[in-house]
Design goal:
By secondary structure, the chain is mainly alpha-helical. The protein has helices at about 1-45, 50-55, 60-90, 90-135, 145-160, 210-255, and strands spanning about 185, 195. The protein has a two-stranded antiparallel ribbon. Helix 1 packs antiparallel against helix 6 (about 210-255) and helix 4 runs antiparallel to helix 6. It starts with a helix and ends with a helix. It is a multi-pass membrane protein. One of its GO terms (cellular component) is plasma membrane.
């Protein structure tokens, strides 16, 4: 009777641990799929400002980030599927493999988080330099392949009612205009489908787009960081609970022999 009572208590613990493990594993899977979607969005969305700016020419930053996110997201999905099977069926070898993968992903996530923290300012500086470069190249007939970038810049300026990165005077750097007084039509309320317009300076948008562009950049970094931190916290719970489940499953298999 005493042995049976112990077995019942252990079995009750196992059922509770399996429930919480499945919940946290589901959260882990959802966050992993979010990372995978993030990577897919970067890779495939040609209207994404960051992708358009950083996937042209020799700059392959978007490709590297996309591959990294797709890889981590895929490993998380595989690990979660293995975890669900090991948890439900109480297969000890799968639980050990699951914890091993969790630790591997945890270390990888820590490395990525550290890299983001170290490289954030560098990427932000590249971001501003790349926007300045686009402004200086804008409208150059020999760079027709850059038109998607210019169209994105036009959309930002027109929709946000701003001009240049910091203000309208930045367009004085551009050497592709017919005359020095011209500015992009997107810096005005004009709907003309051409690169530059002759307009009075006081009829243009005077505010620069830097605040909007920086907010967009910071928001995306914040979302990515929040997903990463959530993953790390979830993994701590998963590793702890899986270890407890493994021990209790082992005990549950021992008691019948006593």
């Amino acid at each position: 009777f005493k042995t049976e009572n112990r077995r019942m208590k252990i079995r009750h613990k196992i059922l509770k641990q399996k429930y919480y493990l499945n919940v946290f594993n589901g959260i882990f899977l959802a966050l992993g799929l979010m990372l995978f979607t993030f990577g897919l969005w970067f890779l495939c969305d040609r209207n994404n400002l960051f992708s358009v700016l950083f996937s042209s020419g020799e700059n392959q930053l978007v490709a590297y980030i996309s591959c990294m996110l797709l890889g981590v997201g895929s490993v998380i999905a595989f690990t979660s599927a293995m975890g669900f099977l090991g948890i439900i069926k109480e297969i000890k070898c799968l639980l050990v493999t699951y914890v091993s993968f969790q630790i591997l992903v945890f270390v990888t996530q820590m490395a990525i988080s550290g890299l983001i923290f170290i490289k954030k300012e560098e990427v932000h500086t590249q971001w501003n330099n790349r926007i300045d470069e686009v402004i200086s190249e804008y409208g150059n007939e020999s760079l027709a392949e850059q038109e998607p970038v210019w169209n994105i810049l036009n959309a930002v300026q027109h929709n946000m009612e701003c001009c240049g990165r910091y203000n309208v005077t930045q367009w004085e750097w551009n050497k592709n205009k017919e005359n020095s007084t011209q500015i992009p039509c997107s810096c005005t309320k004009s709907n003309l489908k051409k690169w530059f317009c002759d307009v009075r300076r006081n009829s243009t948008y005077s505010m620069g787009c830097e605040e909007y562009l920086n907010t967009w950049f910071e928001n995306n970094v914040l979302i990515f960081t929040a997903i990463t931190i959530s993953l790390l916290i979830t993994q701590i719970f998963l590793i702890t609970l899986t270890g407890q489940l493994f021990r209790n499953t082992k005990k549950n298999n021992i008691w019948p022999n006593e």
